[in-house]
TrEMBL record:
PANTHER family: EXONUCLEASE, POLYMERASE_HISTIDINOL PHOSPHATASE N-TERMINAL DOMAIN-CONTAINING PROTEIN. Residues 6-71 form the Polymerase/histidinol phosphatase N-terminal domain. CDD domains: PHP_HisPPase_AMP (cd07438). SMART domains: POLIIIAc. One of its GO terms (molecular function) is 5'-3' DNA exonuclease activity. Transmembrane segments: none annotated. This is Polymerase/histidinol phosphatase N-terminal domain-containing protein. SUPFAM superfamilies: PHP domain-like.
Amino acid sequence: MNTPCIDLHVHSTASDGTFTPSKLIKLAKENNLQAIALTDHDSIDGLAEASNESAKQNIEFVPGIELSTDHNGKELHVVGLYIDPTNKQLNDNLITFVNERDSRNAKMCELLQKEGFDITMEKLLAFAGTGVLTRAHFANYLVDHGYVKNIKAVFHEYLGNDCRCFVDRTLIKTTNAIHLIKQAGGVAILAHPGLYSYGDDKMRNALTEFKAAGLDGLEAIYSTYTPADERYFKGLAKEYDLLISGGSDFHGTNKPDIKLGTGKGSMFISYEILQTIKNYHNRRH
């Protein structure tokens, strides 16, 4: 990778990535990234470590988060960039999210036990280490212990939406998540809109609703997008007066085909994207 680029959607071991925050920043340096945002799922636990390592590596760091939200029964994700990790309201909500996730994980563990797997919350936590415990950790545990062939099979048979060991969870409403990010001083970005299968009319209706709630931007550049997808979402961003953001959604070996900074190989996010977001943020704070 010769031309410096950025990546504004990345996960570490503070949620369901496989690189520690420090190792993530070191990889960013190796890959010639000019700036990076750490956006772990419902977690800010990795931000301090990533920020410190970024200073050592001379990489611009953006503190972020990715919130799992509910929009009329559909799970959508909202990325927050430039959030204040000390914000009390954000931290109080994250505690609630973690408690709800813990309850859900215990129920999924019980269902997997009924399937005959030797799994307990204690064993799972020991295996996963620190960070937010997600379905990816369950899947890795089952594969690592030889119970299931691969992660894809785990989700297909047991943990995918509507599978027999899947347990739904209570999520914050999308508009409320946007408000929360804004209250924490952040820039609210609708993550990977191309993954939601909304169709043009439904997507426009959602953007109208989210824009009214304070949505700032759209992740118009993403690992799995075709050139046509990228043009479409960039067009929507312009039409709705939204910032353009982009990111790989890098998870390390949990998504082995996604590379930091380049996604599936052809993704490129210029520094100008971040400069525009940064200018927008600075004008408001």
